[in-house]
Write a structure and sequence with these properties.
The protein is of the alpha+beta class and 121 residues long. 21% of the residues lie in helices and 24% in strands.
């Protein structure tokens, strides 16, 4: 585990997930050439540079981990993707996604949310 000092987090009056507006306000204060690195979890384990961005539908399963789905319009335009994805849960919301570069982030849902032996991380 690596210890780092957070320069900003979601405001105390909003204890939920950070919004794009909150992120913009934080980023405006930083130099434009500052690199973006993602932490693998809230404890600061496993860091990886940000590689890409995207939009998705997100269904929060545990308050700290969930499932991402393609956008409804992507499913409408791609019958094969729609068949593979199935129905997007009604509880899913549209989100902005930062994708990591490192291979330690790539894998199944279980590898993101649970330890190697399947126990909760």
């Amino acid at each position: 585990m690596t210890t780092v000092t957070a320069i900003a987090a979601a405001p105390d009056e909003n204890p939920g997930p950070m919004t794009v507006g909150e992120l913009r306000a934080i980023l405006r204060k930083l130099p434009a050439d500052r690199r973006v690195v993602l932490s693998g979890d809230a404890e600061g384990n496993c860091f990886s540079p940000a590689w890409g961005i995207g939009d998705a539908m997100y269904d929060d399963l545990y308050g700290w981990c969930g499932e991402a789905y393609p956008l409804p319009e992507e499913l409408d335009n791609d019958p094969e993707l729609k068949l593979l994805t199935g129905k997007i849960p009604d509880s899913a919301v549209r989100v902005f996604v930062l994708y990591p570069m490192g291979t330690e982030f790539i894998g199944s849902y279980e590898s993101h949310c649970f330890g190697v032996n399947g126990s909760q991380a």
